Amino acid sequence: MQLELSAEDQAFREEMREFFTMKFPQEIRDAVTAGRELTKEQIVESQQTLNAAGLAVPHWPEEWGGRGWSDLRRHLWNEEMQAAAVPLPLAFNANMIGPVLAHFGSQELKERFLPPTANLDIWWSQGFSEPDAGSDLASLRTTAVRDGDHFVVNGQKTWTTLGQYGDWIFTLVRTDPEVKKQAGISMLLIDMTSPGVEVRPIELIDGGHEVNEVWFTDVRVPADLLVGELNGGWTIAKFLLGNERVGVAPVGTTKRVLAQAKELAGAQLEDPFTRARFAELENELLSLELTALRVVAHSEGGEPHPASSVLKLKGTEIQQAVTELVLDLAGPAGLATGEGAGVPEWAHLAAPTYLNMRKASIYGGSNEIQRQIIARTILGL
Amino acid sequence: MDFTYDDEQDALRDAVRGLVGKAYADFEQRRRTAAEEPGFSEKMWTQLAEMGLLGLPFAEEDGGVGAGPVEIGIVARELGRVLAPEPYLTSVVLAGGLVSAAGTRGQRAEVLGALSAGESVLAFAHDEEGSRWAPSASAVRATRDGDAWTLTGVKEPVPHGARADLLVVSAALPDGGTGVFLVDPDGVQRDGYTTYDGGRAARVTFDGTAATPLGTPGQDLEPTIATILDIGRIMAGQEALGAMEVALAATTSYLTSRKQFGVTLNTFQALNFRAADMYVSLELASSLVQWATMVLATGDATRAADAAARAAYQVSRASRHVGQEAIQLHGGIAMTAEYSVGMYAARLSALDHLLGDGQHHLARLAAGIEGYGAIDPLAPTAGRG
Q1: Rg (CA), chain B
Q2: ipTM of the complex
Q3: Is the pTM of this model over 0.90?
Q4: How many whole angstroms from its chain centre is CA B348?
Q5: Nearest chain B Cα to A317, which residue?
Q6: From the CB of residue B183, how many other CB atoms can be counted at a distance below 10 Å?
Q7: Are residues B362 and A279, on separate chains, in Cβ contact within 8 Å?
Q8: Record: contact A293-B314, CB cut-off 8 A
Q9: Distance (Å, rounded) from C-alpha B116 to C-alpha B196?
Q10: Is A4 known to be catalytic?
């Protein structure tokens, strides 16, 4: 066992730190630091800046812009980005559909979609969840019926994050209703400007517009926009949801917010209970970070370390606990929605952030699903 | 940066597991051994010596092996897995560690040589009434008369104090500070008793007892004691990890075999989720303890002190969670002395209170939170981000 990074990895880390803190647009970092919602333009600019430096999709195959880094380097890249308040590459593009197309897509689909996906020239939305298919994703009902060289899609998706910005949506659809539910699902790429696609905003408890319903009414989709095999969508979905072992726990961001919170706390830091709460959260976060490091150090090229399932579960719990701490620090000053007279920005953003972050233990396989995975696959229960 | 053992370390783990596993895999055997005086197996103590484990932390010139914290951690973890009652932590890591750190060349060779050979059991007599894990002493006072030193006062609890062949005693020095003394226990009043984890401790009363200063006479060794206690905390963490691993394994095994309402317990999701949370606690604690062990290996005492507090806090929380839930998920059987899991909870609790519990360490950590922004566990030197 050895604590320190190799000289090469240490140099890599410095290089990342220098790029993110010195060469990345400061106003975007400031917006992230302040906890403001980013505009579409800022998110696009951010990813294009990263992509120009070869830092948007380092985990893709090298042919399509990947860098061939070790899991450890990817971890360091991810952590340094978060620590520097640089927005992560859009997950739908970089972590979801990109790797899926690189793995399952035809050569034609790869050439057409991968470069603009890396550069966020195409903004992808995710069309997985439905009103009756959340954690039980295989119960989805949106249908795609073959009609000549097209599929005709009907149904409804929900929780489509940032769908209002989406150019295209990668969608799981039912292409065979007669077989076992997992066996009749396919993945289709759908142009969101197609006739019959309608995006409707969902208002959330934090007052923001982050998610949408997407309705499909007789949407005609060219059959060559099928990804992989017909009825092979479940395999793709499992690949998409399961191939991520780096960055599952947002350690860097949570650390940054917790360190910021110490500064915001002001005189409240005199309170021993408040101090203990900081110390407790820091320790939990350290144990999580070290677990993430154990996982990347251990899973090099092989099967993921079993402890990786801890990361999502505990990572989101700590993330939520930190937003709770910040809201408590704001106290009554956090009551204003939007800009309250005289209320500091961080204080009036504290409640929306706290409320918004309740989602973290629900999305991406709820934490109850994570417990089920641990119980079943690790503990054999 | 990596968290894996090399081949030699794997081999060490297998060897220790083979030895103590064979002796104590049967919990009944462990119970019998703990029930008879001196509360551990003298034969096993000799076998541990023969395998080189008792001399592991000490320099070769002192009769030891010169291994590092990772190796010592491996031994502690394996002993923890079977609740081995031998006083490795208190005799080797604490008392031996102090002699190694502060003793004269002659003292090191004599004391550590005998300890490494399995010929001697040491006790670290440090705790005093009202003192909660401080690195200083006040209730036992040292008096100097020329070159002769004597001790007066009471130490309690002294783990394995009644059986020990040599006492390593902390005492308040006449001119301030805390010194450490070697005391031949012959003629010292020792009132031994059994501890709730099946171990042994004693009340040791010094009454003008002749004592030999460890190292330079009159030197304040409080910082050295503090460092040794921090090392002990990390190794106690390793021992607790071993115990938690087995307590969790026993629990999952029970859930898959025990039937109620005509089905095995793992049919009930509520129980499985609680076991999953035990796993989460264990893994987080494991990461932190392994990291602290590596920090210890860097030899930076300041950094190690911080890491020890962090590990101890995380282990304290995890130990209570895993120990308590192991009993709850087993149900009534876990309340019986015959079944092992209750004793795992007892041992975890004893380890938690031996060198500072979670609340104690949280207070330590809370006192320093302004000193840094965020913690960087990979910082190349003592610095933090």
Answers
A1: 21
A2: 0.95
A3: yes
A4: 11
A5: B280
A6: 25
A7: yes
A8: no
A9: 28
A10: no
